[in-house]
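agent> fetching stored inputs for the adenosine-5'-diphosphate docking request
agent> found them:
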Amino acid sequence: MSNRTELVKLKRTLGRINALAPETAALSDAALQAKTGEFRARLQKGETPRALLPEAYAVIREASRRILGMYPYDVQVMGAIALFAGNIAEMKTGEGKTLVASMPLYLSALTGNSTILVTMNNYLAIRDGELFQKLFAFLGMRLAIGVTDNPKEQLTAAKKRNIYAADVVYTTHAALGFDYLMENLAASREEKFLRPFYYCIIDEADAVLLDSATTPLVISGAPKVQSNLYEIADYLVSALEKDVDFEAEDKNVWLTPAGVRKAEQFFYLDHLYDGTHSDVVRHICLALRAHASFTRDKDYIVQDGSISLIDALSGRILANTKLRAGQHQALEAKEHLKITMENRSMATVTYQSLLRMFPHLAGMTGSGIEDAAELESTYGLKVVRIPTRKKIRRVDLPDRYFPNIRAQILAAFQDTVQLHEKGQPVLIVTSSIAMSQVFSDMLLERGIPHSVLNAYNTAREAQIIQEAGHRGAVTVATSIAGRGTDIRLGEGVAALGGLAVLGIGRMDSKRMEVQARGRSGRQGDPGMSQFYISLDDDIVLQYGKETLKALRGGSAELHSRKIKRQIQEAQAYREDQSRAARAATFQYGENILAQRRVVYESRDAIIRTEEFSEEDILALQKKVIDRFLDSFQDLPDQSQLTRFILDHITYDLGEFPDTYLLITRQKMRDYLLTLSRSCLHKKLDPIPGKKGQTAYLRTMIIRSIDRCWIEEVDYMQLLLAINGRQYAQRNTRYEYRREAYASFQTMRRHIEEAICRNVLLGDLQPLPGISPMRQILIWRCYLGRQK
Ligand code: ADP
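agent> prediction call returned; pasting tokens
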């Protein structure tokens, strides 16, 4: 359906809502408030939310006027209708998306299902949540905020349960993701807190669904045995030469045959890739990527002897975030820092798979149409472009092109000075921190006061950007820092021409440029935007044609159509690359998703089980014993049998019979089963009551599942890291899936064995004076810490 037909449909519904406005406005406060109860009852009786939409929207619209003093404009209501239908509403900055979201949130919450709004950061979730709390409270609903602004505060499971039980939850995508992972590490019903996912609106949807799509959320746990290969591999890689020994493309790096030979000599190996040196291969891969794909001060900074990552998106430092699967350690080796402990990934989820779990998903963004096709194919979300309330008056001046960074910056700087002298506020958007610093230094030298928004300056971001529209303000920001806060014009600024956005450098995608321009010209304000492009732009250097490089001399502005087109092509290529990377992550996500679903469902079933019987355990033990016996052509000998019993049944070999009595498979099987049964009794009998025994069994089972699942998650990540080399090849996906499937089957076997082993061999020596029930609690705390 074309956008126009969509809009016609939206307008039809809007008409019905508008028609209800007079009678809704005539309602007393009490009568308006009573509507929530009435709607709930009607939904209970079987009316559909869709049928209810016009009335519900008319009610919250009126309530919003009374409580917040804002009456949603027609275009806002149209956006709200599009959101309830599960679309991405493209609405420009300043159109009031926060207010738009409140309408579908209200309607969804009326159904009694979990209803969530995710924003980009804590600040926005808290700011918007606090504002809209009043509105929802008036309508008899509870709005809870899922994040805190106190980084030290740890929300307990009970607190989280209270939050997620609310009618509407405002949170961030990161908090939601971590909560989802934590929820599924819970060992008992008391530790669970989420309700089944139902409806979620994503603010700044393109940033979350596209730009952050390949950043997985990871909960790490118990350290692995530390490898000493990082420094060694780094030493090798430092001596290798690009395009001779290795080649790099985007985030992928691989050895050339010459490089393979050098590595083999260095490590004294006959064949690097014969399958037995995967650890060495992996460390070389990681070291290569540390050198070729990560740039200091762009992707990470070194501060106080440690590495901090920089969010490619906002240019902010990602506190407490580490690269996975050893990449962080490889970077530390590259920078000659102390190598930190490498943790296991205990649970991971990508935003792609997290958000796809919602049966009803919707999004809002100022720029989405550029990537509409991908959003539709990956998430089934259609982008509907909602018209602005007032005509856009911002003037987007044609891009200017320069041969090199000097000429580029100089031109942007001169324009900034000129605009500033008039008093017009200027927002300079750069594509790297380094660039924003250079620019800031130049402004400083000229004595122009300004604010910088980048990785070194996070706290006041929103406040600074809010003031960016004041007379004489100059603000330098990396790509989308401060997104989500609209820039209002100060006194008299409109007459000066509004906010000027100057973009330095071609950005990674057209969408980001649209987003940057959109900071200016909100709600029909005047404004202007202009981009300054040069042949030194990262995107040109990385993806541009070789011929472009020859033209970098001089300082004269470039006007050749051909050059412009080639730069455009470089950007398009970059966009393709990102899309491909997202598709690959998507595949990975799908694989782990299928596995995760099975594991989490089994876990949940176990947590919900009221009672376990010893027969359940013995049934598993039977399988384990059969597998053991099947692994021998003949029968195991005495020492093999002893080993098995010590590993799986008991440490007490007191009653061990002579093997000559166990002359058939059947006899041996019966013997092992009987032994298991009596050992299980010995374990369980001292625990008083079925309840205590069930608690013991549950703890052991969950622990076994988690242990094996953690191994699996970790392995899948490693697989991905190693596969980096063959990424470009077609069949990788298939290979990856095959490996993933095989390892999943292995994991299932391991889980069965682990359960039996942990139950039978688990140590439950009661501490003197402590009841067995309490003992289990201590156990659990201990396990919890182990995670
Ligand atoms: P966006 O996220 O679309 O950029 P915001 O939700 O931040 O926009 O809203 C921008 C500003 O417009 C906010 O200060 C909000 O209070 C105001 N606003 C939004 N809708 C209305 C309305 N219907 N009437 C009055 N003010 C509004």
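agent> quick read of the result: Residues 70-73, 76, 91, 93-99, 486 surround adenosine-5'-diphosphate (CB under 6 Å).
agent> awaiting further instructions
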